[in-house]
Design brief:
By secondary structure, this protein is mainly alpha-helical. It has a domain of 92 residues: Winged helix-like DNA-binding domain superfamily/Winged helix DNA-binding domain (Arc Repressor Mutant, subunit A, Orthogonal Bundle). The chain is built from 7 helices and 2 strands. A two-stranded antiparallel ribbon has the order 1-2. Helix 4 packs across helix 5. The radius of gyration is 22 Å and the shape is elongated. It starts with a helix and ends in an 8-residue tail after the last helix.
Length: 171
């Protein structure tokens, strides 16, 4: 089914933003942020797959390595921003590969503390090194002041999102 020029005029400009001005800078920014994150993660996933790893495995291992000691599975899931069952599947695979351990909490057997094994630290170091090489190429030629300014900007956006964005009450 094709639309006529008059149908297009009713749709684009009335119902949807006009095609000529799409996307406006604010929408273009949010689209670019999402696409850059997805494409970066896909690039890293492709490179880590050669090692039998993935970006999600690296993210979980990093969260455990840099978390306070005795962090529980629930705390790690919150730190990453994923659901418990998603983390459980990843932890099962990492544990089977000998990269992480779940240690029973002596004061509460329901809790498991997460720990990276020596082999896990070595693998995480290799994964982070690989990412650092790609990040270096990605950011090559971009002034440090721009990187810091953009980091501050993105941090502000993340804080606002995590703090909850309230919609204004309609009158």
């Amino acid at each position: 089914m094709t639309t006529s020029a008059s149908d297009d005029a009713k749709i684009f400009g009335d119902m949807l933003p006009a095609k000529e001005s799409f996307p406006q800078p604010e929408l273009g920014l949010t689209i670019a942020i999402v696409l850059a994150g997805r494409r970066w993660r896909a690039l890293i996933d492709d490179q880590l797959r050669v090692r039998g790893q993935s970006a999600s495995r690296m993210e979980v291992m990093s969260a455990i390595a840099y978390a306070p000691q005795q962090s529980t599975q629930i705390q790690i899931a919150k730190r990453i921003g994923i659901e418990g069952p998603t983390l459980t599947r990843t932890l099962d695979m990492l544990e089977a590969d000998g990269l992480v351990e779940r240690v029973a909490d002596p004061s509460d057997r329901r809790n498991k503390h997460m720990k990276i094994t020596p082999a896990g630290y070595a693998e995480l170091a290799a994964m982070l090194d690989l990412c650092a090489q790609y990040r270096s190429r990605l950011l090559e030629g971009i002034p440090a002041t721009d990187i810091k300014a953009n980091l501050g900007f993105l941090t502000t956006l993340m804080e606002r999102i995590e703090g909850g964005i309230e919609m204004p009450q309609s009158e």
